[in-house]
TrEMBL record:
It comes from Geodermatophilus sabuli. Its EC number is 6.3.2.4. Its main location: cytoplasm. Its cofactor is Mg(2+); Mn(2+). One of its GO terms (biological process) is regulation of cell shape. It is found in: Cytoplasm. This is D-alanine--D-alanine ligase. Belongs to the D-alanine--D-alanine ligase family. Keywords: ATP-binding, Cell shape, Cell wall biogenesis/degradation, Cytoplasm, Ligase, Magnesium, Manganese, Metal-binding, Nucleotide-binding, Peptidoglycan synthesis. It holds the Pfam family Dala_Dala_lig_N.
Length: 331
């Protein structure tokens, strides 16, 4: 990051007015509360950085509001389907509204975890073996028979999670065969398709990537150590239940390979501006891709802000520079 952190302020001075941004937060997905927390944090950081920022929900008033008072750029702090499946971004594209983040098509790919894993594996990166099946398969073929085949193929323990979604909602580690049916039922509450993958024991890393105009760059890895051993929804958003270390306490060569993996994931999936890849480092030092987030959390307990701080940058500066890049063509 070699550009001046004062770029948005310099641009504002050149145009005679501050950069105007709309921060989108909330929505109707399961992750609404997390999104509101992220959006509030983004709004506060942008305001401190000198941006004229407004916090809005993604509702029926959004498009009329943007038409009546156009923003230089929109920052999407929505989590879950509303902010990450590409639909909202496609609508913003139709309206000609610039926004920070990945394009709609890339978001659709990243949102579909099995599809993203397939693309990542095709690119030569390592990801745990998996199977993804819709609820109808279990209903039509018999849950017991299908689950027996899954265990025979992947073994135990397993990680069971919705094939789309974030914040680890519905995700569970399964160590006993008898616990698998209940874990599947829990996942189906969040979506029609479940992803079951081989559980990899090791050091969990959050690998943030940002692109401020010189190509995607990996920030220092954040090591995640949940007290429960599983980084589920509660461990993510309850202060004190998880320890974070940034930079991660891994060997230098592992840190380099983890950073390279995150940047490659960002590139092969066609992502833009910012992303966060979740990965596991196994005892042999192999870095395993788990999933990628196109709208990483920006709350007080989120890993992207930790990585920005570990890199020696101010979060507000990074966010405002991302906005400034997207707003350039409209100012």
């Amino acid at each position: 990051m070699t550009e001046s952190a004062a770029a948005p302020a310099m641009e504002a001075a050149a145009t005679g007015q501050p950069l105007r941004a709309v921060v989108l937060a909330g929505g109707l997905a399961f992750e609404r509360e997390v999104s509101l927390s992220s959006g509030t944090q983004v709004w506060e950081e942008l305001t401190r950085a000198g941006v004229d920022a407004e916090l809005r929900d993604a509702d029926a008033e959004l498009l009329p509001g943007l038409a009546a008072a156009p923003a230089d750029a929109v920052f999407i702090a929505l989590h879950g389907a509303t902010g990450e499946d590409g639909a909202l971004r496609a609508v913003l594209d139709l309206a000609g509204v610039p926004y920070v983040g990945s394009p709609a098509a890339a978001c659709r790919l990243a949102w579909d975890k099995p599809a993203a894993k397939s693309v990542v594996r095709s690119a030569g990166l390592t990801t745990p073996d998996w199977v993804a099946l819709p609820h109808s398969t279990f209903r039509e073929l018999g849950a017991g028979a299908v689950l027996d085949l899954i265990v025979a193929r992947l073994g135990l323990p397993l990680m069971v999670k919705p094939a789309s979604g974030g914040s680890a909602l519905g995700a569970q580690k399964v160590t006993r065969v008898e616990d698998l049916p209940a874990a599947m039922v829990s996942c189906f509450a969040y979506g029609d398709t479940v992803l079951v993958e081989r559980f990899v024991d090791g050091v969990e890393l959050a690998l943030s990537v940002v692109d401020l105009g010189e190509g995607p760059e990996a920030l220092p890895a954040v090591e995640i150590t949940p007290a429960s051993g599983v980084f589920d929804y509660t461990a993510r958003y309850t202060p004190g239940l998880t320890e974070y270390h940034s930079p991660a306490r891994v060997a230098g060569d592992v840190a380099v390979r983890a950073a390279e993996l995150a940047v490659q994931v960002h590139r092969v999936l066609g992502l833009a501006d910012l992303s966060r890849t979740d990965a596991i480092v196994s005892p042999d030092g192999e870095v395993h891709f788990l999933e990628v987030n196109v709208s990483p959390g920006l709350t007080e307990t989120s890993m992207f802000p930790m990585a920005v701080e570990a890199a020696g940058h101010e979060l507000g500066d990074v966010l405002s520079r991302l906005l400034s890049r997207r707003a350039t063509s409209t100012r």
